[in-house]
Amino acid sequence: MRIEKKAMTLAIRRDSTLATFFVQYLLERNIRHQEDLVDQLFNCSEKRLARALLLLADSGKKGASGTVVPKVNQETLAEMVGATRSRVSFFLNRFRKQGLIHYGAGDDLHVCRSLLHVVLRDDNPAGSLANHSSSVGANRGLASLPSLGELPAELYARRAPLGICGDRA
User: Model's pTM, two decimal places?
Assistant: First the structure.
């Protein structure tokens, strides 16, 4: 929906509730853009994909143990995280083998909250999922992480040390 500038300005001046709502929306949108930029600059594509899946699944809801991601293909995910489709496919397969995601009926993608550990992991390069060749080693690293409650604000702006992951694409 498109609203003319003149009509919106008039509506904001007349209705303080609308003005408050609109300013709040603009601030949240600006913050989200800043968080996305930080994510793009400081995290590898594996973490960016994990974050994107969690945000799409809206895992911040109370009591959500695993939620369905809206239908989105790997090419779109690749564009969202700034990676190639083949790289996204590689990480999705890794997440699936580790039980962090699974496909339901009709190819619905279910995201488990434990995928949050991939985003929050701030360990050395030897502990990175991108540097593990087997899922056993990767699972060992995930098992040592503490249990997390609500989806923390750190998900949005967590800065990983440079070089933590084996790729930057």
Answer: 0.59
- Contact indicator for 133, 43 with CB cutoff of 8 Å: no
Indicate the range of 8-17, 73-82, 116-125 predicted with least confidence: 116-125
Residue 87's nearest CA partner among 130, 135, 134, 123 is 130
pLDDT greater than 80 at residue 49: yes
Q: Where are the domains of the chain?
A: 1-42, 44-157
Query: Angle CA(101)–CA(157)–CA(54) in degrees, nearest 5?
Result: 20
The answer to whether the beta carbons of residues 86 and 45 sit under 8 Å apart is: no
> Taking the CA atoms of the chain, what radius of gyration do you get in angstroms?
18
DSSP-assigned letter for residue 101: E
Closest to 45 measured CA to CA, from 102, 118, 117: 118
d(C-alpha 161, C-alpha 169), whole Å:
16
pLDDT in tens, 122-152: 653 434 444 433 333 333 333 333 333 444 5
Q: Which CATH architecture has domain 44-157?
A: Orthogonal Bundle (1.10)
